[in-house]
Design brief:
single chain, 404 residues, mainly beta, Neuraminidase, four-stranded antiparallel beta sheet, 28 strands, 34% strand
Length: 404
């Protein structure tokens, strides 16, 4: 008897399913009100915001770029002529300095990380370059112009407050900012010249100060043009890129990546690379070699001369392939005075978790240079969560790079 009722129950379920299918297929006029018809998940590219990358696409920039398998690169934001430094605020929005335009632009993102609008917030500035948010006061933005550092509370009616004067003029006008693990504000100031004996005691150095601009003091010297710096996530040491001097040929001297130590001298103008004496400039006679430790600190990594290394960032995201963890990504802005142009790419340095080099550099993304024609020049490199943002001051865009 139990088997009889079980069979009746099964038959009833089957009849119910048949009726359900017939109802769905024959009464479509009212069915969508209950269960919408299946729709495609493909979004037409014309409707994508600048920050969106279609799933599965590798390179949507329209440029002939070479990228690692599985990675994606897209043009995240446009119409940013001279885009240089990128910082992200506590709300996830990006701020971009544009020295050639004298402005700082805010790029507002929605919750999915797409660009919804961009606005010039600060204008009529003098070659604004460095940007930094105070980690202890996340809405306080610091801006370094060629001749001063100011700060302002964002998302408020506040105004720019000058906290420090900087020396202006000369060949190198970029001033880059960053808050260190010690809570102090750091600023790099390039030399006035290609190679010379500086008359201004604040040039070719990195300084640190309290967040209100007081207690300004020299941190390191002998740095011709260390435009960008950052801190290693584990060792907490400062790493900086450094551009070597010109007029010594296509392959001399090397550009550099340096680990910056407090109170140390990195050689310029009389030494370069692994403590090589620049005898073309320095004709003095010495009892001992002037280019050796502890007097001068050698470069940590030598780079191809005239690569013009700028932004640098350590890969900290757990979403990136494991072999990239703690690696260093550096932007090569590219040469302007070499017989055969070089640079115009992002390179990768394999490091262990203490920053020790584990092999030769590798191209990470290349292709901005084709023959003697450059379609872009990468500048800043910023790791924001799982995303790597790259500014390009030639194309006036920001690229977004996502891992596999």
């Amino acid at each position: 008897m139990k088997a009889h009722y079980r069979n009746l129950l099964i038959a009833g379920v089957i009849l119910l399913l048949i009726g359900f299918v017939w109802y769905r297929d024959n009464l479509r006029g009212i069915w969508p009100a209950i269960l919408p018809a299946q729709t495609s998940t493909v979004i037409p590219s014309a409707l994508l915001s600048p920050g969106a990358t279609p799933v599965g696409s590798g390179n949507t920039t329209g440029l002939a770029l070479t990228i690692p398998p599985g990675f994606s690169i897209s043009t995240f934001a446009k119409n940013l002529p001279g885009a240089r430094v990128i910082v992200q605020d506590t709300f996830g929005n990006l701020w971009v300095s544009q020295p050639s335009e004298g402005v700082v632009t805010q790029i507002e993102l929605d919750d999915s990380g797409r660009v919804v609008r961009q606005n010039v917030v600060f204008k009529n500035l003098r070659k604004p370059h460095g940007l930094a948010f105070d980690p202890a006061a996340p809405t306080m933005l610091y801006i370094a112009e060629e001749n001063k550092i100011s700060r302002i509370p964002t998302y408020s009616d506040g105004s720019l407050e000058k906290i420090a004067d900087l020396p202006a003029g000369g060949n190198h006008t970029s001033r880059t900012l960053g808050f260190g693990p010690d809570g102090r504000l750091y600023v790099s100031i390039g030399s006035t010249c290609n190679v010379c004996n500086e008359q201004n005691n604040m040039r070719a150095k990195i300084f640190s100060m309290k967040k209100d601009g007081s207690d300004l003091k020299e941190y390191a010297r002998g740095l011709r043009n260390a435009v960008f710096f950052t801190w290693h996530p584990n060792t907490k040491q400062m790493w900086a890129t450094e551009m070597g001097r010109d007029l010594l040929g296509d392959n001399t001297p090397p550009d550099e990546v340096n680990i910056i130590q407090a109170g140390k001298n990195y050689g310029w103008p009389i030494c370069y690379g692994k403590n090589t004496h620049d005898t073309q400039f320095d004709k003095n006679t010495y009892i001992r070699n002037p280019c050796e430790e502890p007097t001068e600190i050698p470069s940590y990594i030598d780079l191809q001369a005239h690569s013009a290394p700028l932004g640098l960032a350590f890969v900290t995201s757990s979403k990136w392939p494991a072999e990239y963890r703690n690696n260093l990504i550096v932007a090569f802005h590219g040469s302007w005075n070499r017989t055969q142009p070089t640079g115009y790419k992002l390179v990768r340095f394999k490091l262990d978790n203490q920053g020790r080099v584990q092999g030769a550099q590798e191209d990470f993304i290349s292709g901005w240079l084709r023959g003697n024609t450059a379609s872009g020049r990468p500048v800043d490199v910023v790791m924001a969560g799982d995303t790597l943002y790259i500014s390009d001051d030639k194309a006036g865009v920001i690229y977004k790079i996502t891992p596999p």
